[in-house]
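Subject: design request, 279 residues
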């Protein structure tokens, strides 16, 4: 964080004593190339270098502007799907170990990854459907060694949270230890993709007859602890306003559908997508 200039980019002029000295020292240690970069770029580079555990922490804190402030939360929101992909051979090994069958039996084609996040990456693939025709699917594969990495890094998160509660009285109201505990619980659940698939299926059943809302179906034959396969659905990101207009969507109608769907999920079903990324 220091080398990539993240600490130097934080406002430190109002600090006094040892914290101000530390901030000034961090500015001296920042790399020359980092000093000319925007704060968002500095933070993204630093967290990418720290690894998937810290990317997940950044994504989590992006939903907590009350903890990190609105500006930092907006910077952290840019971490979505920014992780580097891992090699195809490792993805194939994870799939075969999880499902107990060779990839050649499971898929007609398995393509290179198109997106990667802190815990898993996604591959387009083609399977033979029940009608004998080829069907495009999305295959989400967990990162090799990610559970061990998260377990090690979480120890550091808890240590930092406890030190913050002990030595920064103003931070106690934010309950940093409880924040770390929530992160630990959610990531443990997310790293068993069978639970994600079950939640996806439940959401699909609940919303089967809802207008304007569709959940991709799960291919349970090709789903295990480390891989989940689901129906491929093309779409446009909600924050891509120009793309939504170009696709012919009525933005007001889309917003109404979005709000109504969320209210149905929460109030009617008690089952909703709780990992609410800012993007």
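Subject: RE: design request

Done. Sequence follows.
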């Amino acid at each position: 964080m220091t080398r990539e200039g993240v600490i130097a980019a934080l406002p430190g002029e109002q600090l006094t004593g040892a914290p101000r000295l530390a901030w000034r020292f961090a500015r001296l240690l920042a790399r020359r190339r980092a000093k000319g970069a925007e704060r968002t770029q500095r933070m993204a580079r630093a967290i990418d270098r720290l690894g998937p555990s810290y990317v997940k922490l950044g994504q989590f804190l992006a939903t907590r502007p009350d903890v990190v402030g609105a500006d930092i939360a907006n910077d952290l929101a840019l971490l979505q799907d920014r992780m580097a992909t891992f090699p195809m051979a490792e993805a194939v090994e994870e799939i075969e170990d999880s499902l107990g069958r060779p990839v050649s039996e499971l898929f007609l084609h398995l393509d290179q990854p198109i997106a990667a996040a802190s815990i898993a990456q996604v591959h387009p693939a083609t399977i033979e459907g029940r009608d004998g025709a080829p069907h495009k699917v999305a295959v989400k594969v967990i990162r090799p060694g990610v559970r061990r990495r998260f377990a090690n890094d979480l120890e550091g998160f808890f240590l930092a949270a406890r030190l913050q509660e002990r030595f920064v009285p103003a931070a106690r109201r934010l309950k940093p230890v409880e924040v770390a505990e929530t992160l630990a619980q959610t990531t443990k659940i997310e790293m068993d993709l069978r639970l994600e698939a079950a939640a996806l299926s439940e959401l699909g059943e609940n919303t089967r007859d809802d207008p304007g809302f569709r959940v991709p179906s799960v291919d349970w034959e090709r789903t295990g602890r480390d891989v989940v396969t689901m129906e491929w659905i093309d779409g446009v990101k909600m924050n891509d306003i120009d793309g939504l207009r170009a696709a012919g969507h009525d933005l007001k109608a889309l917003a109404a559908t979005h709000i109504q769907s969320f209210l149905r999920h929460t109030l009617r079903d008690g089952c909703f997508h709780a990992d609410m990324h800012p993007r």
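The chain has a mean pLDDT of 86.
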